[in-house]
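Researcher: Next sequence.
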Amino acid sequence: MTNKPKNMYSELKTQNKTRANLFQKTAILLLLLFGLSVQTYAQRTVEKLNRGLVAMRLNASQVYVGWRMLGTDLTDTSYNLYCDEVKLAGSPFTTSYIL
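Model: Next structure:
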């Protein structure tokens, strides 16, 4: 008779461990699935555009030159501006330019 309570206790202990392991595995799986779904929503939708150049005459002697920067460009990207293979600015520039 003394063996039965010990066996029942060990069975209950084993069942509790099994439930705890199942709970842990389920929690880890849910966190993993949640993490993967959050990553897919966090990505930006980007249009397939290239750099666009805009030149607009301001008056008889000035032209505004601007361009579209890509989302992947570094913030310190600079450009040289050429016209008929002649460099128009002495040093590269990062903002719009008025000639």
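Model: The longest strand covers residues 53-57. The mean pLDDT is 76.
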